Amino acid sequence: MTTASYEGLPERYTRIPEIGLRDTPSLRERLQRMWETPPGIRGWLTTVDHKEIGLRYLVTAFVFLFAGGIEALIMRIQLAGPEQRLLTPEQYDQLFTMHGATMIIWYAFPVLSGFSNYLWPLIFGSRDMAFPRLNAFSYWVFLASGIFLYSSFAVAAAPNAGWFNYVPYASKQFNPGINIDFYCLANIFMGISTTAGAVNFIVTTLRTRCPGMSVNRWPIIAWGTLTSNAAAILAMPVVSLAFFLLWLDRTFGTHFYAPASGNLSGHPLLWQHLFWMWGHPWVYMIVLPAQGIVSDAIATFCRRPLVGYTAVVLSTVATMMLGFGVWVHHMFATGLPIMSLSFFSAATIIISIPSGVQVFAWIATIWTGRPVFVTAFLYIAGFIFLFVVGGVSGFMTGVVPVDWQLTDTYFVVAHIHYVLIGINFFGVMAGLYYWFPKFTGRMLDETLGQINFWLTFIGFNVGFFTMHITGLLGMPRRVYTYPQGLGFEIPNLITTIGAFILAAGILVFVYNVIVSLRRGAIAGPNPWDAPTLEWAVPSPPPPYNFAVIPSVASRHPLWERRLREGDGESVLDRGPVLDHHHEALGVTAMDGEPDVILKMPSDSYAPFLMTLCISAFFAGLLVHWWWLAGAAVGIGIIVGIIWLWPRVEEGGERAIA
Amino acid sequence: MSAAIDTFNRAYRVKPLPMGAIGTSASGWWGACFLLISETSLFAYLFFSYFYFSIQPPANWVPGGPPSFFYPGIQTGIVLVGCATVWFANRSIQLGQWLFALLGLAATWLLCSGFIAVQFLDWFDKPFTFALDTYSSEYFLITGAHLAHVVLGWIILLMVLIWTALGYFDPVRYVPVTITALYWYFVAAIWIGVFFTLTCTPYFF
Prior knowledge:
The complex is a heterodimer. Chain A is mainly alpha-helical. Chain A has helices at 25-35, 40-46, 50-79, 89-123, 132-154, 179-207, 220-252, 268-285, 288-301, 309-323, 338-350, 352-368, 375-398, 400-406, 410-440, 446-472, 489-519, 560-563, 606-623, 626-644, and strands at 14-15, 19-21, 574-576, 583-587, 594-599. Chain B has helices spanning 2-11, 27-54, 70-94, 98-125, 134-165, 175-200; one strand at residues 17-18. Chain B is elongated. The model of chain B has no long low-confidence stretch (mean pLDDT 91).
């Protein structure tokens, strides 16, 4: 859309943006007063600052990472030797289910949302996300759904059917406790957060950027996150539906998965279809933004632009699209027609092409660059190595006859950990070492960082490479112990040792964060001499991010004098001041031309109150207090109406002439 | 230096920019579009779950034979007429015809109420209940999911009707009316899918 269509608007609805200079102290003071969140509990509950919300996402996701990690370590103690009785079978079931669910759903995606939330407006040269209150809402719902899930431990009824929760094992008949109800409702609950966040990321990417930030200039993390959130809005409904149907089966005796006496009965395999139609896209959704982190950071640490920007972007999108067509490779052993297996096997194998393009782009960047061997770079290099190993084992299990041998063995467990720890966690660690100075204004300690990296890298490979062998020896996953004499003792002991080394590495990281927050070297705006816009503002950035909206002329605004790329020069030191109330610039989706001055909302209790209503709703459904669920819906509607009420200062209600 | 001025001036040729929520440049419009894409995919998965069972033997899995066209036919009429009235409301507010906009919204809201009533009549008319067998579970699930969206539309229509009556909107600030219209088109389109799936396809297989 061009601005031409706005011609003829009454004057009170238009303005020529005032141009100002970035380094004007009075402007900065004015913006600071306008945008900062008041201190205290009120500010804490009402803030819509994307930086605050981003950090909360990161910290909360790491708390879930620690919880899931502790669950894993308890299991590893149990499996360190044969015939151990530290845990009962039921406790073991609950631990591996909670470990998987926590890591995959409550850690891996939210941690990436944390990065994206913090960085989005900064890399795009904007003041805030498109929907600041929705942003706060998606965080609160993420937190509340996690608390909801973990409250199951308090009643000793944590989910116990594995993170993919197959029926009929998860049906009422075979699993009568409240365990699975917790899991069903917690997942639907979390789906609200993911969907709300996804809509926010998509609209933010398309609308609130600075002029000149056309699609071919976005950092790769923007592409990774946009792609994965576009997938989220298409894939989240199916998992919410799958869990909702299971909850209906369990609560009202419907017949979606459960057998019926009528002329056609429910079908357990429907669960697997619905679950994996979400489950496999999800796997790519939790790695693509991390691959984006690596693609952006690798340019900084190799002192040159990423090789093959366009190829990497296209591979990102292609991986996601193919990711929607591979779900049956989780179901090779269920007796589906061979035609179907062949199709899904081929689709799975084809994914190695876009993945390979990315790997070669990274290798070429290192090869032709001048790598700086800081901790962040080590994590990037580790990421690439683990991606290749995990990719190869994924390729192997994509081949039907091999999969038939490996299904439900530890080989599959090794594969999923190589891809999830390798391509998510190592990318996240690279991102934390890279952006920690931006978040806090201080550098993470390098010596501790090196110790941290080598402990996690060695511990991880010792523990999980061995798991491949455990699987090839035939040890099934999800057994609470194993008998002596089958050859499982040594590999299991090695895996346990590796797991504890990995955990020690993560503890070193935590120590590093605590120490560096107090005593780390002062970072300054751009400690890595990085090329993108977030490094053009102070560390940590002021609440309004940019005193004047920059305009960019290339992909690397801070490197363009050296690279001589782009048409013209980026202008960072002057631009629109947008200082009437909370304002941001809206641009056209493709070209990034200024389109509209958006009026942004201020701090609000509504997101927090809405989350309380939703929590009460799910609690009511869990314990069958229908009156509570009904009351929560009623109050939630009122909160929603208050939230959306049109306001003059937000540009919703007409301005009186 | 001249290049720098070019970049900057290209972005900010001295021209006024509109402020706030204006037509389809409003963030709310974009957010609503993507949210509705997500809701549409929810119904795609619902239909998948229905056809997953209906294409498997035995044929004619509907208890009592293929369903009657009576109530679903009325509902189809209601959503289509509602598309016209809500379009009229949106057009009127754009032209500044406040009273016509109010009438259009009120008419759509009444049609919405009628749709909800007819859906309940159809439900009470069915000889089976939610938990009888897989068909009955699917039937109530899909019509129930659609009805939940219609009830949400009923609340949205009511609020936008009130806001319009309070005089909040004018020919520039009216995007909530446009979003309401979009929502109704969505509900109507999904209804056509529900109608085709639940009422028409049992006659074929």
